[in-house]
Specification:
Keywords: Cytoplasm, Methyltransferase, RNA-binding, S-adenosyl-L-methionine, Transferase, tRNA processing, tRNA-binding. The chain has 460 residues and is an alpha/beta fold. The chain has helices spanning 2-6, 19-32, 57-64, 83-91, 95-98, 121-129, 181-185, 201-210, 228-235, 247-251, 270-276, 346-360, 430-434, 439-459, and strands at residues 8-14, 49-54, 70-80, 107-115, 139-140, 147-154, 168-177, 218-221, 239-244, 283-288, 302-307, 318-320, 341-343, 361-374, 389-398, 403-412.
Length: 460
């Protein structure tokens, strides 16, 4: 109870994309900085305005140095559902908390921010003039003020039904902006080395934040591809390492993915990507390796494992194998040929991944990965389970009308023992998820049906 008395209230202005990912990101980052998520609001839904209780302004600033889901944070001085309620709330805010920012030697400006409505300049000035009762003693400076204050008005989420008056009005002192500019500066469109499945920059940073990646961590990606997830982790000061079964991708060889380019250039590789962003010092190595047969000595090496396994859509699900492993009943290869790779069922891939994470993560380390699902059949019981790993969050990103992928975040809570390696096979989660081994067929059956439907409607 004593902690509650020391908490200050802050207003977070959230971005209106990746809505399901926002709350787990904020919770993970607050936990990273030694705080916890405390709020009087029961649910956030799609609203861009969140009121949080945070122990200190330093933690609020650290939060904004990491988040890509939040635009800005404000020290909340007052709020209400009408101007009168707002003014009453502001008059009840302790004057001693205002004075340090309103003294005669200070400079300030007041901004008006509206969500889902545009105000005229005259309306904005009217709102600013109405705040004259506040004890401002400094000078107005519109270009380089020492302190910025904001009135934020919420007109709901429906652009087709904008109310005359706002649902909520907030007033606060601006503290800091989030890291939204990273989405543009790290855009895949500008990246030196890309592939068919290079991860969107915004999602890469969200995954690193869900994984609580921090300075001097060691972060591993067993399905590294072109290294997009390594870049996001390295940006936050972690040392990065990866493996992939594809020799050409690891070494930057073969056909280029970029339009109007036939072959990859001599310096088109993962290391060059990190060099592009000034992050090469965080690059440990990337090796050609099979995720189903990890070549690691037993031990805990990684603070986080962050990965995007192949789903069999743009990239095939493969593992190394020999002729002996080919199931009977299919056409045999010539005796002189040993197949480079065999099919790798999705359920096997994810259970191997969980086992590997349970063995190699430090206690408290996190596994963050994407799980593809066929939406009509999905239930939470299908998420793979492991006795050493605790589910932290499960967020959906829709891929099509019938498919999605879910960002799963798990934390290691128990030391790995040999008996844990197969205990997940006794779980109720095994059989449901094995049905998703046919995810590729279900994905393309939906595409085929949609094309047929479109063709039929065009002929009518």
């Amino acid at each position: 109870m004593a902690l509650q008395c020391t908490l200050n209230r802050y207003l977070l202005l959230m971005a209106q994309e990746h809505l399901e990912f926002r709350l787990p990101e904020i919770k993970s980052l607050l936990s990273l900085f030694g705080s916890q998520f405390t709020s009087s609001q029961e649910t956030y839904g799609k609203s861009p305005f969140w009121i949080l209780s945070i122990p200190s302004e330093d933690i609020a600033r650290n939060l904004m140095k990491r988040t890509v889901c939040a635009k800005s944070i404000f020290e909340l001085w007052g709020h209400g559902k009408s101007p009168e309620e707002l003014y009453s709330s502001l008059k009840n805010y302790p004057v001693e908390k205002m004075v340090p920012f309103l003294h005669p030697d200070s400079t300030y400006k007041i901004k008006i921010h509206t969500f889902n409505k545009t105000l005229t300049q005259e309306e904005k000035v009217k709102r600013i003039d109405a705040l004259e009762f506040l004890p401002f003693e400094g000078k107005v400076n519109l270009k380089k003020p020492q302190h910025v204050f904001s009135v934020l008005e919420d007109y709901g989420l429906d652009p087709n039904c904008i109310p005359e008056n706002p649902h909520n009005i907030y007033f606060g002192r601006w503290i800091a902006d989030g890291q939204r500019e990273l989405i543009e500066s790290y855009s895949v469109k500008k990246r030196h080395f890309i592939g068919n499945t290079s991860m969107d920059a915004g999602l890469s940073f969200i995954m690193a934040n869900h994984g609580k990646v921090k300075e001097n961590d060691i972060v591993f990606d067993p399905f590294v591809g072109t290294g997009g997830l390594l870049i996001a982790s390295a940006h936050f000061g972690a040392y990065v390492y990866g493996t992939d079964i594809d020799y050409n991708t690891v070494h930057g060889l073969g056909k280029a993915t970029r339009k109007n380019q036939k072959w990859r250039g001599p310096d088109e590789n993962i290391r060059a990507n990190l060099r592009q962003y000034g992050l090469e010092k965080y690059y440990l190595d990337v090796l050609v390796s099979d995720a189903s047969k990890p070549s690691w000595r037993k031990g805990t090496y990684f603070d986080a494992i962050i990965t995007d396994p192949p789903y069999g859509i743009r990239e095939s699900t493969r593992r190394t194998g020999s002729q002996k492993e080919i199931p009977k009943g299919i056409e045999k290869c010539p005796e002189t040929h040993v197949p480079v790779s065999l099919s790798y069922h999705l359920s096997d891939m994810f259970f191997d991944l969980l086992n590997f994470a349970a063995e190699t993560l430090v206690l408290g380390g996190r596994l963050v990965y994407w799980l593809p699902v066929y939406t009509p059949e999905y239930t939470e019981e299908m998420v793979p389970w492991h006795p050493c790993l605790q589910l932290v969050s499960n967020c959906e990103q829709k891929l099509s009308s019938h498919t999605a992928r879910r960002l799963i975040t798990m934390e290691k809570v128990k030391k790995f023992e040999n008996r844990d390696q197969y205990s997940h096979l006794l779980s109720d989660h095994v059989l449901p998820y094995q049905g998703h081994n046919s995810f590729r067929e279900k994905y393309f059956s939906g595409v085929t049906k949609r094309i047929a439907k479109e063709e039929k409607s065009s002929q009518e």
